[in-house]
Task: structure prediction
Amino acid sequence: MTQTTTTVAPVPDRAGTGQTRRKVRTTDRPQAALGALTYVWLGLAAIVLLFPVLMTVVGGFLPEGQLVRQPPGLANGAYSFDNYVAAWQQTVVPLLPAFMNSLFVGVLIMLGHLVTSCLAAYALVFVRMPLRRPIFWLFMATIMVPYEAIVVPNALFIRSMGIENSQWSLVLPFLANGFGVFLLRQAFRQFPDELRQAALIDGAGHLRFLFTIVLPAVKPSLTALAVWSFLQGWNMYFWPLIISSSNNSMNTLQTAVFALKANGNGTQQALLLAGVTITLVPTLLLVIFGQRWLVRGFMAGAVK
Result:
């Protein structure tokens, strides 16, 4: 049987009659208990999901002896920045050049996705041309191709061009993306075709209409695509590992941490956790501060 609690609270009369009305509030106890249990469950799930990240970050501040003992000395450990300083200063696999390579890859892939996706999505929405829908489905088909299926062709293409020892080999196969075209196409479809015709009558060409009317109105989608593209480039591991296998100067942070473990530092767990934390910092900052833009951008094209 459902139990309810009724609470009577006095409410001042705003009509000036001098009388006090009463407001009746009804609380459903099972619903309140269910809400409390939901928050408890979500809190426990958050602890389970975030514990590896917390262990990685905190483990980088602990000395090696306190980290490897069972259980780890998290509560009474001697925390310091020594592992982070050692990770930056070690010369086996320098992390500063790897950081700059990761930044180069993330920024270039982000810019490439923004430019190619904007132009392709605009053509698919506002330019009258035959086979627009089949061309769009061709873009969508590229999303369904497994990443592992294109690694070998991309590697052969890069080596045939003779740029395998250049930083451009890290970004060239990833300057365009079908997901970005899909996201911006959905955002551009919110504009009526009459708006494009009115701009055409006023003498606005395609580029002027795109840069002065369309793009300022879809800033949430552009921001979401920029954040998503940068994270995709920053977190790439498999492709840089293949390309930079014979050239350590092209290591990104992800491959540098792997190389740090493979070059005799595998037993220094605290040093490795400090290196992993350094790779996580930009990702966490972008997700924390860009979450609002990500949600707004991905939802912008959901309703036409």
